[in-house]
From TrEMBL:
Residues 15-341 form the Enoyl reductase (ER) domain. It comes from Aspergillus saccharolyticus JOP 1030-1. It comes from the Eukaryota. One of its GO terms (molecular function) is oxidoreductase activity. Pfam families: ADH_N, ADH_zinc_N. SMART domains: PKS_ER. This is Alcohol dehydrogenase. InterPro entries: ADH-like_C (IPR013149), ADH-like_N (IPR013154), ER (IPR020843), GroES-like_sf (IPR011032), NAD(P)-bd_dom_sf (IPR036291), Zinc_ADH-like (IPR052711). Coiled coil: none annotated.
Length: 343
């Protein structure tokens, strides 16, 4: 079969922040024996994709790199030694190309960060970093799995069958986590600055409770009240140092605080003295860097087994040519869930 010689992609511009993205034509790299050539059908954006343009991302990123880590794609060609994939298979890639078993010790090589990402029509991956997609999901839904989904899965300590999860905000990670909790019958409390977004969240399942963090400044007290004085079993900390103290106060004895985000910045001065509160509550604090291939595979198996629809996760869909508008929507913070680009 004749393979495409070139394809369209976006790359970050260079210079002083805020950067933007620009469309480029790229030459297709060679497909080696263990490689798989994929045609990308949908890409979803994450907060980090904006943070890199604004120079607020706390990790190194490739100058003029191709943005985005999350895609849903179709296999079009496989190298001579590939055994796990064939043309026509629906796949996605893992976020950190070095994190297969979850035991590797090298630094991450993160798609769309320190290696080129997926906002492009075609890409070549080593077969070991690919995962089969659940059949029931559309390209748009499946494009949300890699970063937001695997992070939510890992941060919630899934699979879990009981307890209460506290989810901060209604962005991509939180809304994915909400859908996982609903599918597993786990109680959830989700926060937002918008009553309208909270109404929408409550409409998704019977065990969803909500708090407007703008109106209820001491939201940790409300979490404790909503859990009959017990507190949440796990909290996804999306905001960062500024709310860690409140998240910790929201937790039950032996709860887990999953450190995920930096939406409120990474000002170390705001990081509270946690030594005694963590000790006395027997809390586990976990640093989360998305998850491993095993985590992502477990998430895909769960989504397939429970036939979880990810449609409620999708805030807006933009065509490839309007990718800049998709980035602008994410930056506006008006979204609820995920912003998807179709190719
Ligand atoms: N460690 C990891 O592995 C990992 C993986 C994925 C993401 N992240 C990080 O996790 C964070 C969330 O990512 P995302 O892609 O889900 O972001 P996102 O979709 O851009 O989420 C934005 C939403 O978060 C909420 N928010 C913003 N500031 C808030 C605050 N002070 N308190 C509570 N909620 C607030 C707002 O929700 P409302 O409009 O409802 O108020 C906002 O719309 C980011 O910092 C991201 O970089 C980390």
């Amino acid at each position: 079969m004749s393979l495409p010689q070139s394809y369209q992609a976006y790359r970050r511009t260079e210079g002083t922040a805020p950067l933007t993205i620009e469309q480029v034509t790229e030459k297709l790299p060679p497909v080696k024996s263990h490689d798989v050539l994929v045609r990308i059908h949908a890409v979803s954006l994450n907060y980090r994709d904006i943070a890199m343009l604004d120079d607020t991302y706390p990790q190194p990123c490739l100058p003029r790199g191709i943005p985005a880590s999350d895609c849903a794609a179709e296999v079009v060609f496989v190298g001579s030694e590939v055994s796990g994939f064939k043309p026509g298979d629906r796949v996605t890639a893992i976020w950190d190309l070095t994190n297969l078993a979850g035991t590797e010790e090298q630094s991450p090589e993160a798609l769309g960060g320190d290696v080129d990402g997926v906002l492009r029509q075609y890409a070549v991956f080593n077969e070991q970093v690919l995962v089969h997609l659940p059949d029931h999901l559309s390209w748009e839904e499946a494009s949300c799995i890699t970063c937001a989904g695997t992070t939510a899965w890992n941060a919630l300590e899934f699979p879990r069958k009981s307890g209460t999860a506290l989810l901060q905000g209604t962005g991509g990670v939180s809304m994915f986590a909400l859908l996982l909790c609903i599918a597993a019958d786990v109680q959830s409390i989700i926060t937002s600055s918008s009553d309208e977004k909270l109404d929408q969240a409550r409409s998704l399942g019977p065990h969803v409770r909500t708090i407007n963090y703008r109106k209820v400044a001491n939201w940790e007290e409300e979490v404790v009240r909503l859990t009959n004085g017990r507190g949440a079993d796990v909290a996804i900390e999306n905001v960062g140092p500024a709310t860690v103290k409140q998240s910790l106060a929201s937790l039950a004895q032996r709860g887990t605080l999953s450190l995920v985000g930096f939406l409120g910045g990474l000002d170390a001065e705001k990081f509270p003295d946690l030594y005694f509160p963590v000790l006395v509550k027997r809390v586990t604090m976990r640093g989360i860097v998305v998850g491993s291939k095993i985590d992502q595979q477990a998430l895909c198996d769960f989504l397939a087994e429970k036939k979880v629809s990810l449609k409620p996760l999708i805030d807006a869909v933009f065509p490839f040519e309007k990718s800049k508008e998709a980035f602008a929507r994410l930056k506006s913070g008006k979204h609820q869930g995920k912003i998807v680009i179709t190719l």
